[in-house]
Amino acid sequence: FVSFMTQRHYKSVLVIGAGALGSRVIPLLAEGEFDRIGIADGDIVTKKNQMSQPAYAPVDTSRVVHKSVFMSYVLSSKHPEKEFISHPFYIGEERARTIIQDYDMVIDLTDNMQTRLVLNSVCRMLSKPVIFASIDESEGFFYSTSDGFACYNCIYRNSIGSPKEGCDSSTITPSDEFLLRLTDAVTRTARGDHSQSGHLNYTSFVNGSRMEINVAKDMACEICSVHK
Fold first, then answer.
1. Is the pTM of this model over 0.70?
2. Is a pLDDT exceeding 80 seen at residue 189?
């Protein structure tokens, strides 16, 4: 068991979204086991960003600075033995197909449902494990999936009403416990341990309560039915 858990299967990761959640998660991942980390985000640093994303506090907002470029520069200085690649643009379907194939796994930290569904489809097509995570004012969630488990579209197509998307509020402060659980799920997946796959995890930032839901594949899912 120990040898299985310590064997690293995935050495590179593409993180999409370097905002309120990504700016906290990416530096934690840089401390971990990945040799190569790609950071994709088309957003630039603004004064509003700096209120909820302290990682960008040193940035001079009078000039155009992409979040992905700044984050890559800072982390490269701290971890010269690792490779950090900046993708300073938003990820659409065409770019997703091109970029994702160069990484072992993907982490979606965006606040856009359309982007999540595109990434879900491309990752399933390329057989790449992916973890979706987001935060809002009062709670955070993450969902891990890989081949053989329910994809994100399985959840989306059966949701009652509109699934929550993240937000970029200045008051968001994800709990340390949530960040720890999320990075642990990423580390497990990177080591080839897919025990987190198919589990939807919620954490309340108000009272600290947690909930885990086992997600079954939707046999009528448009994505899963094509990419078996």
1. yes
2. yes
